[in-house]
Amino acid sequence: MIDSFISAEIPSPSADPLGYALVAEHMVHGPCGSSNPSCPCMKKGMCSKFYPKAYEEQTSVDANGFAVYKRPKNNFYVEKGGCQLDNRWIVPYNSFLLKKYQAHINVEWCNKTTFIKYLFKYVTKGADCSKVYLQRVRNGEDAPYDGETRTVNEIREYLDCRYICEQDACWRIFGYDIHRHFPAVERMPVHLPNENFITFKARAKMDNILSQEFLRRTMLTQWFWVNQRYADARELTYIQFPSKWKWESDSRKWMRRRQNQGKIGRLHYVHPSAGERYYLRLLLLSVKGARSFEDLRSHRGVQYATYKEACTSHGLVGDDQEWYNAFTEAASWATAPQLRRLFVTMVLYCDIGNELAFFEKYWTYLAEDFEYRYRKIIGSTQYQMPDIDKRDYLLAELTDLFAKGGSNIGRFNLPCPSQRA
Ligand SMILES: [Zn+2]
Prior knowledge:
- The structure is a single chain.
- The chain is of the alpha+beta class.
- It has helices spanning 17-26, 95-101, 115-123, 154-157, 166-173, 206-211, 213-216, 219-229, 276-286, 293-296, 307-314, 321-331, 336-349, 355-366, 370-378, 387-404; strands spanning 42-43, 46-47, 60-61, 67-68, 78-80, 83-85, 145-146, 151-152, 185-188, 245-248, 253-256, 264-267, 298-299, 302-303.
- It has a two-stranded antiparallel ribbon with strand order 1-2. Strands 3-4 form a two-stranded antiparallel sheet.
- The longest helix has 18 residues, at 387-404.
- It binds zinc ion.
- Zinc ion (ZN) is lined by residues 29-30, 32, 39, 41, 47, 49, 51.
- Zinc ion (ZN) binds at residues 29-30, 32, 39, 41, 47, 49, 51.
């Protein structure tokens, strides 16, 4: 499957001369290492991209879900920088794209259940930066230098700007899309009565704001309102609502959709330590047709005083199941350091019944980044960290986090680090 799209091999010069020439020109890494220590990829005496790679007879997928491409040991090589570079030095490419665009295009296979992290954590890494020095010279004035105090004004000396390359700038100036979302997603607020957010101008009068019924309307309160009036609306949970109803933000009303193309609803994330708002969100995920906050808290004819009790009645909490659900949801998008902090917060503040079972269920997510970090330190992509080491590193980090939270890991039923020397 991977081989039909991606190759890391030198094409045969006789069977595919164009492919050979293009790979030789665009897709060979290096030479770096001892034959060229000044290559830009060299960091701390090693190639930061881990070339040369090892020979591989077959393409495979390693334990972390990364593809290891086929790089057979054969007689094909490319001459570059006075070296003969073979399949170990080829940057993975797609033959069709390479021939069409005749440029360096690195193509890699990525597919994991959590690959959304791979795609979007790259996006959120931030834009390119460059250090630029600005100086006003027209009036002979040296801008960042303050003559009175005779100090360099460091704040005026540097601007924190985003660097956009020429191609990127053109793309944006012509207004092309950077990315596309389909189907559309409606983000929906989760708030307790009278705790909705409102935006107002700085000089607005507080009395005016508070007296306006319009400003109290939110997607949530208007969902109740529609449920009070229309029987068919009650077939849907809050999160399903945008599939059949359309939110008009100017009038703050839900309108029945005429076309079939609905949106997907997504509730704002609520941290498990938020208390009642957290339980409110749990109810909103499963209760259909509620007509008021009180109605949402009612189940089988009983109106409960708190959202937590209502969740218990619905069977949404108990046996730590709600914490497992919360953690599973977070694990699909949060990074390992974020998950470690969440784990510690939940153990400290959420009354988890069985901490050890909770740890055992999720420790692999909490330790997800250790092998990668260790590989970077020792400069090997092959190193497989044994589970026992991962757990020890994890417990050491958790010990720190508990201490920073003003507690002690020893107070909880969690494993001890292994007793190895
Ligand atoms: Zn290199």
